[in-house]
């Protein structure tokens, strides 16, 4: 299948490109490299470009004629979205509309959309299933809700357009072959932040809140290995093409680990007792966030292969060591 992957040089996108490439798909990756890297594109051809450049989008779609689009290109940092909401609405909404316009002009009918558990805000019950109301508490989550609304309306209006929105929970880990992994300039996710602290890049790891109504007082999250998430994309794409049915599906394992549990496993894997500072809660952090992914499993046959926190952290740590050496020019 000919597949256009926007944002395919980024963390999640590059792992999906790897999985698609291993299956022999014809891939074109469209990325502005603002947070992605050309070395992370292991398969296909990379076109460096902006979604804001509608003329370039038309040229790319006209020449490549994709049968499907996987759309990862977005700004994703929650705290940054609060500081710079206009940037998030411009990139996540306006630029996505440019892509959808181009898809309509070139009769591209299949879309896999990268969404997030942030659309739920602070959920009213656990685990979180797709029927829960959407109540985002930051501009990042709000921008994704806006795009899900747009996609729903387009699908209602056009018989030949169908999509699947995948709502990710906490994505972590790295390619088990240690070829690619997270390479953000300033990581904010807990596991990556912990490993960079162990590696000496940060003086300490902050734990925000120890008085939540959880067994050890810290927040609990559902961590999914990035390779399992990549497999979910492939299965969702196959389902979409085979059935033509629009769907929304959660991506997670259905159970979680507390911040303290993650820190303990990170120290075990790295064998480094890095400094940890317990501090006040952050506004808007739900005590627990666990996915009900039964819909994804039932409809696509998805079964996770890496549902093991130590494996997730070990692959991330192996990559962290390699990437730091790459930055120093040692590899």
From TrEMBL:
CDD domains: UDP_G4E_1_SDR_e
Pathway involvement of the protein, from the record: Carbohydrate metabolism; galactose metabolism
Signal peptide annotation: none
NAD-dependent epimerase/dehydratase domain ranges (all copies): 3-252
Any GO BP annotation: galactose catabolic process via UDP-galactose, Leloir pathway
Obligatory cofactor(s): NAD(+)
EC number: 5.1.3.2
Record field: catalytic activity: UDP-alpha-D-glucose = UDP-alpha-D-galactose
One MF term in the entry's GO annotations: UDP-glucose 4-epimerase activity
Assembly with partners or alone: Homodimer.
Stored PANTHER family: UDP-ARABINOSE 4-EPIMERASE 1, UDP-GLUCOSE 4-EPIMERASE
Protein name per its UniProtKB record: UDP-glucose 4-epimerase
Originating species: Syntrophus aciditrophicus (strain SB)
């Amino acid at each position: 299948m000919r597949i256009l992957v926007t944002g395919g040089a980024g963390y999640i996108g590059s792992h999906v490109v790897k999985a698609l490439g291993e299956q022999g798909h014809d891939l074109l990756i469209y990325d502005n490299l603002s947070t992605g890297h050309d070395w992370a594109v292991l398969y296909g051809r990379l076109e460096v470009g902006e979604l804001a450049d509608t003329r370039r989008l038309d040229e790319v779609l006209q020449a490549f004629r994709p049968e499907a689009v996987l759309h990862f290109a977005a700004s994703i940092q929650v705290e940054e979205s609060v500081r710079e909401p206009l940037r998030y609405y411009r990139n996540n909404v306006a630029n996505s509309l440019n892509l959808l316009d181009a898809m309509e002009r070139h009769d591209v009918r299949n879309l896999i959309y990268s969404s997030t558990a942030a659309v739920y805000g602070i959920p009213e019950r656990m685990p979180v299933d797709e029927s829960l109301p959407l109540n985002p508490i930051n501009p990042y989550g709000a921008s994704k809700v806006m795009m899900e609304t747009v996609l729903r309306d387009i699908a209602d209006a056009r018989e030949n357009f169908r999509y699947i929105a995948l709502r990710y929970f906490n994505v972590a880990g790295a390619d088990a072959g240690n070829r690619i992994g997270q390479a953000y300039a300033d990581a904010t996710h807990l596991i990556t932040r912990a490993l960079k602290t162990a590696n000496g890049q940060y003086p300490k790891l902050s734990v925000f809140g120890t008085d939540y109504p959880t067994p050890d007082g810290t927040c609990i999250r559902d961590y999914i290995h990035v390779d399992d998430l990549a497999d979910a994309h492939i299965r969702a794409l196959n389902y979409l093409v085979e059935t033509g049915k629009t769907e929304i599906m959660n991506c997670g394992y259905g159970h979680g680990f507390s911040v303290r549990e993650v820190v303990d496993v990170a120290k075990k894997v790295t064998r480094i007792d890095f400094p940890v500072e317990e501090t006040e809660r952050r506004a808007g952090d739900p005590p627990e966030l666990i996915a009900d992914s039964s819909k994804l499993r039932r409809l696509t046959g998805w079964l996770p292969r890496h549902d093991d926190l130590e494996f997730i952290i070990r692959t991330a740590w192996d990559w962290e060591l390699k990437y730091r050496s790459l930055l120093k020019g040692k590899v």
